[in-house]
User: Fold this.
Amino acid sequence: MQKAPLILASASPRRLALLREAGFPAPIVRPALAPEPRLAGLAPGEMVTALALAKARDAAARSPEPGAVVLGADTVVALDGEILGKPRDAEEAGDMLRRLSGHRHAVYTGLALLHAGRELVRREVTRVYFRELSQWEIDAYVSTGEPLDKAGAYGIQGRAGVFVRRLEGDYFSVVGLPLCTFSEMLKELDVELL
Amino acid sequence: MQKAPLILASASPRRLALLREAGFPAPIVRPALAPEPRLAGLAPGEMVTALALAKARDAAARSPEPGAVVLGADTVVALDGEILGKPRDAEEAGDMLRRLSGHRHAVYTGLALLHAGRELVRREVTRVYFRELSQWEIDAYVSTGEPLDKAGAYGIQGRAGVFVRRLEGDYFSVVGLPLCTFSEMLKELDVELL
Assistant:
């Protein structure tokens, strides 16, 4: 098994925290510089893998480290097939949370791993069930500011944890990085991180 | 709605961290003093609610704070109906992880909330699917010491996150405190924490 450093092609503090909490060595953080390509018309599952791969390739092109593994990831929330991105403002955040209240939605995360000329791409889909939220709860949550930088206007690892009645799939994928799939991809590449 | 302080009848640092991350005010930590009663012959779901209630009552009896809410909780791992407690040593931890490898198990958490003469008790069951673990992975995980103080010999929020292929239910219940159920119980008591 080869030993390799990890380059994380993401600026997400949550992905970095997940890697640390799962015991992986600290990666080199090198977010993609190119603006996210517009991928209108793609289904959520296709979009996240395309964006994860684009981010990983962008970072890899600027990575001189020999033998490094480059990780790209992208996460979106989809409700009835419609993608909910990051809300523009508090009003849109409230609208998204009202739509999620009492319903099931899907969280898609795409992962791309680049190593020694190989490109592995995987996706993970997790079903998340919100309980009914009162307008008071939605307003209180939006006022914390937490929803504003998050796809679907919530952070499951933060104050929105109390909204989640049930999930089916990978919790860590909802946070932004499916750890089990990531570890399996490293095995497939026959690489151990250092 | 009444405002009340929370008394946490548990010494678990993970339960305390979950409350903080979900935005609840810092509780008064007052673990039960009495040894856990032996409850041989109970099914896992009955055992966790009985132990959660026993812990909450023990702490409540030593709590002079007027109008406080007292929270007791207990979590166990069950495989094919058999309860897996905290492993005695590294060898037993390895045995438990070998049994969990590639299989589905159940995590039961009981919650008891005591307030103003009322006692609410709930339980949560979550199904957790481990991927296949190699002996090398099990040995490496056991050597970190993380499994030794945990029911079922793993911590999903730590290095064992990479072992979990899928779950069905409440992630936070597997960590030790089902946040959604807890928030619903507070609503039922018509109490807001301060």
User: Anything to note?
Assistant: The first helix of chain B runs from residue 13 to 21.
